[in-house]
Amino acid sequence: MTVRTRFAPSPTGFLHIGGVRTALFNWLFAQRHGGSFILRIDDTDEIRNLETALEPILKGLEWLGVTWDEGPGVGGDHGPYFQSQRADRYATAAKQLLDTGFAYRDFATPEELDAERKEAQAASRPFLYSRKFAAFDEKTAAQFEAEGRRAVVRLKMPREGNLVIDDKVRGQVTFAWEREQDHVIQRADGSCLYHLATVVDDHDMEI
């Protein structure tokens, strides 16, 4: 198996010591195992992205001596390496999740979600979205759309059982599915969030 690691900073701020640590660890690991180190720019947050942040990130890595085998200015077989240029790929992935039942369209308004959170807080229980405004079929979606609602796409997480992970550092770690939220992966305007984009990219780039 060929080792492929990546560092994927978001240009919402400048390079900091935590990012440097992650980049160095992944770069050294790839070097040690004769693999490839990929630099990807996770710039899906159009509102918070800073035009002045990208160049200092690249220059900072160069100053540290961290070079990348694939990425901005270098290219590679798995590009483009800017998430803002991969929107069509994420939309395809979101549709695939919808078609296979692993995601759903949700028409809840921010006010309705906030009301559910406050109700859970008042009852001293963890908030878990009720899926009251979820559309699992076209008929339901059409009814919500007729009301003037707009949909986001959420992952449809299991509500029973546990996720058990054998972690090399912490050992066996257990997460109860009933406490996991149905995270939004695609906004109402069609743009996709980090939760989806990063997983799709790591898969496509063979990380």
**Helix and strand sequence:** EHEHHEHEHEEEEH
Helix content bin: 25-40%
How far do the termini sit from each other?
11 Å
User: What number is the mean pLDDT?
Assistant: 95
Shape: globular
Can you describe this structure?
- The protein is globular, with a radius of gyration of 20 Å.
- The protein contains 6 helices and 8 strands, in the order βαβααβαβαββββα.
- Helix 1 (17-32) links the parallel strand 1 and strand 2.
- The mean pLDDT is 95.
- The strands form 3 sheets. It has a 4-stranded antiparallel sheet with strand order 4-3-5-8. A two-stranded parallel ribbon has the order 1-2.
- The chain has helices at residues 17-32, 54-64, 87-99, 110-122, 138-146, 194-204, and strands at residues 4-7, 36-39, 103-106, 134-135, 152-155, 162-167, 171-176, 184-186.
- With 207 residues, it is of the alpha+beta class.
- The chain has 2 domains: 4-81, Rossmann fold (3-Layer(aba) Sandwich), CATH 3.40.50; 87-192, Alpha-Beta Complex (Glutamyl-tRNA Synthetase, domain 3).
